[in-house]
């Protein structure tokens, strides 16, 4: 039976959109995998180690950190947690003796803050929910806690897997699949002469979608070059003006109260930099109204090399970006010679195609991007070797194709607005013709002499 064309089109769009919503072409295998390892049985349940592995190359979980939630399959309770805590205890009135840590059917668990007592800690815990990107810091891309579950099964056949997993990292954007039983995790002893294994293991995979996280982009890109006096700014309302709409005043002074002019006294008042519980932003008034602007400047042109300057500016008064990442896609990144004041790591999402790289700050130097103000920017320069077969400054070639900041794709300027080369230089054929004519004149003069 053939389906009507309208139904086929709807089916195609549904499949395409569902796949694209959580697929990053520059990090096709990136995800967060949550693994539950049952370590021992208890009289009414089990003790499990829960590990959260961030396999995303350039997207981390920033402060205030992750929140992991799920629904119990039966009437399970959490007797105790080491290395984390449930945000609510729930109704535990039916327990007469020991009171569980959490009796909610849908618990929400958060990481502990640094500096908690040692008897509440476990390996890879207690960072305030901050998890590094795997491509930037593999050792910091793991967070873990131990949980004791009661009123559950006490064998592999009677344990029921939790359902409806949710992950806030720290806001929206992650979608988690169902828990799946996998081969038990194997552990090696310290001397690597004995191995043990978990009694039961299941995993949950969570993927990120920028469309779910934010209605608008969270950053924008501007361009400039040494060969053109035009500066291409971020597009107007690139990150959505919304309540921050301007009435057209100069310098942002006529914006609504949702943003602060750069020279306003309000920016210096106490409490401006205090984060809000709902994560509400307080931006410096700009035409683009983005928290982050990335500026790419083509700075110098040498015989065999060329040099670009990258500047990242934070316009959010309430946000410090710790261990930030900047990803650029550019065809000449396969010939990076030197990067100044930033760390650089090539990304190879498609094997041998080396056109994508990640920039990030040097530890304890510029890995913290401060909130809006005089220190709210970081800068670097990158030196690249020219490829004689493909290199040109024309047609916007010297500018990146895509820019990501902290894993979110930034709004690029329209391609037809890129700074262009002036048309003052004569064509190559004209140069050859002129040279030939000069040689002919000199030859005639010699013969005449």
UniProtKB/TrEMBL annotation:
Gene Ontology BP terms: cellulose microfibril organization; plant-type cell wall cellulose biosynthetic process
Superkingdom classification of source: Eukaryota
Signal sequence extent: 1-22
GO cellular component, one term: plasma membrane
Keyword Glycoprotein: yes
PANTHER family documented for this protein: COBRA-LIKE PROTEIN 5, PROTEIN COBRA
Protein name: COBRA-like protein
